[in-house]
Amino acid sequence: MFKNDLLNYSGILGAFLFMITTAIGGALFDGYSHISQYISESYAYGTEYGHLLRWLGYIPSGLLIGFFHFMVAKKLKDNKYIFIGLIGFGILYGIFTSLVSVFPCDFGCNRNYSDSSVSQFIHTVLSLFTYALTPFSIYFTGVGFKKLANFKVLFRLSTLLSIAVFTFGMVFLLNANSPIAGLLQRITEAMYLFWIIYFSVFLIKYNKRLK
């Protein structure tokens, strides 16, 4: 069912590229705190290495993640729940990860949103959609897998993870000015990345069992 190696590993590559870029961005930004600062602050307008982090890291990461989910959705298009869920995730988390990098926030990511640039406004709106709606994509995907005998574990994981990631996402958005806002964001992102990697590895192992 999933015999294309590029397809099978594109999700993993995208997730790891995101993590590596986040780590590098924090290391390059003098005085940067992963606990208090947004991920976006490391590649905002005015940062020394922001353009490199965006174009060599986050943008290709989002495209790889989007590609993975779109291609799997194409192969499972007969299941409407899986199809809607995967397309939704590919857009809301994959493509939007790339778009928020095309439209970075202003230096320091002005948290009061006063006198924000058009780029930061777009960046903020896309981020809100990602954190508010992507959990539902995971849930829909899980509902679809419930009907497939060999994929029941994905149903259980998707259900639990969609609740957890929605909860943490809302806590982050409601505490965006908190001194631990960066930590809350990273916990939320970590759950999304866990989903991508687990789903990718599951499909790789499933494919090997079919050989």
Automatic annotation (TrEMBL):
Alphabetized InterPro entries for the sequence: DUF998
Record carries keyword Transmembrane helix: yes
Keyword rRNA-binding: no
Key words of the record: Membrane, Transmembrane, Transmembrane helix
Sections of the chain in a coiled coil: none
Parts of the chain that traverse the membrane: 12-32, 52-72, 81-101, 121-141, 153-174, 186-204
Protein name: DUF998 domain-containing protein
Lineage: Bacteria, Pseudomonadati, Balneolota, Balneolia, Balneolales
